[in-house]
Amino acid sequence: MDKTRAEIAWDWPSPFVYETKVEPQHIDDFQHTNNVVYLTWMAKAAWEHSKALGLDFQSYARLNRGMVVRRHELEYLAASREGETVLVGTWITANDGRIRLRRRFQMVNKATGETLLRGLTDFVCINIETGRATRMPPEFVSTYALTAQVPEDA
Question: 0.90 exceeded by the pTM?
């Protein structure tokens, strides 16, 4: 029986959760989810959270600003296999109000509650037209407010 989101031992309270299923195309020669798939799920969870907060690509285009990846860090803790459901929790844990933003991630097997991966992504704000780093517009500063307090990210 699947764990409810409230039963999951999340690293921090109240994550935004993106739910996905391990499909046959996600499986590698070791018969578990390929590492690149986890990175794809992190990106999808971040984007879904951004849209839920009200910042979609149309907003980015209107503001001529966007958040792009500067660095990923992933720690693989356990494998997932075809047919399993994975919950991808994400939190915004740093926003300097100028250029930089950090998200933390935790992936959990929905059936067992086991943590599969912990990761983080550092983003920078860019001017979409030039591709150069630039100051966040006020909408990014307020919308991408912290959702978890992580002392080492402050």
Answer: yes
